[in-house]
Amino acid sequence: MSRRSVKGWSALSVAVGTALALGAAPPAATGRTAAPAGAALLSVGSCPARGMCSASRRTLVLDDSATTLDLDAAAGPVDLALRTAGRFADVTVTDHKGRRVAGTVSPDGARWTSVGPLGAAGRYTARLLVERTHGAEQIVHRTRLTLRTPVAPRGERLTAELGPGKGTYGVGQPLTAELSHPVPATDPEARRAVERALHVSSVPRADGAWHWVGPTTLHYRPRGYWPAHATIRVRSALDGVRVTGGLYGGPSAPLTLTTGARIEAVTDVAAHTMTVLRDGEVVRTIPVTTGKAGYRTRSGVKVVLGKEATVRMRGDSIGIARGSGDFYDLKVRWATRVTWSGEYLHAAPWSLDAQGSEDVSHGCTGMSTEDAAWLFATVREGDVVRVVNGYGERMTPFDNGFGDWNLSWPEWRRGSALGTAAAGPGAGPGTASGAPEGVLTPAL
Fold first, then answer.
1. Annotated catalytic sites, by residue?
2. Which residue range(s) make up the domain with 142?
3. Per-residue model confidence as pLDDT tens digits over 372-384
């Protein structure tokens, strides 16, 4: 089959469509300008959800000159779709600084969709190469479109404060995004716009997904724990993106953090021991005591929230009345916090006789002063603490620390506005190895 290249587009018409009023009103009631016989049609629009674009269209016939389209900023990705026979041989979209806009071509070559929306006050250049078969010949059409988006109106901007902050963390540390304005579950398109604009990558690779904890809070985690000694980068591309109505995104500071060795402290309540592993190897086994009847230690996966060399613990902080036989008021050494309500791993020299054989605490995990000091020096924020073979209630996901890992991966993905697509290549460049979903037994 022979091939020839056609530089001009006098024989090609382009239909311009929109799901979110991207263009001017159609020039005719049919929404279509007459196109030359055999011309290919291309629709240009924005989809609030992939593959779900508006049926309203208008047509622009391109000549040999470059064409400029003035668009309204939208919350959805930009969509270029061939509406007649042909396929995209190449699509390159760049911003005014020459940076490429990420996008994918469908398997049949008939559609190109950007990963995210175009921001306000932007000027983008789309270079298109379309192949069509005409008899025994394959014709290559080339054109260039300039897409312009208007300046965002004055007003409040939605920004994201990305956490946990710079530093080195354990492999169980979730990422957080605190939004300056609420985005309710009743506005799924706005939530999709926000999620698409929050980018996470890591080296080594670790795919994951965002989960909406509430209208102003998102958490991000991989399917398993983060890789050890990883570099994680988080950034927001919300600036200039229309989130909903008149609310546009604003600038947010990016975040880079790292992970250390994979440290896991696994407390086997039935055996009264804590086994500490570093990168899968056992480094110490510690006799412990956990919560007695009425004060059982929570089961499940927790994450180290912080460390306090000395902390005052009082029974009335957990509802034990002063004067009661269970009341206590102690200064405790080497306390590693795992819940906001006051569950710690700490030195408990008063319970040495019970450690390794009996549960006598009010919910904390107690050990010798020597072991507690060693643990205190060994773990960091984000390290994993698992409680197995116990009798207590399961650690909740979000209201008492980072219990994110107690949700199975399917449960986690259901909290994403992007659905199963959230865990694909767009969320991060690979897959992390970690604890099997829903399995809380020690990996010894």
1. 346, 364
2. 2-148
3. 999 999 999 999 9
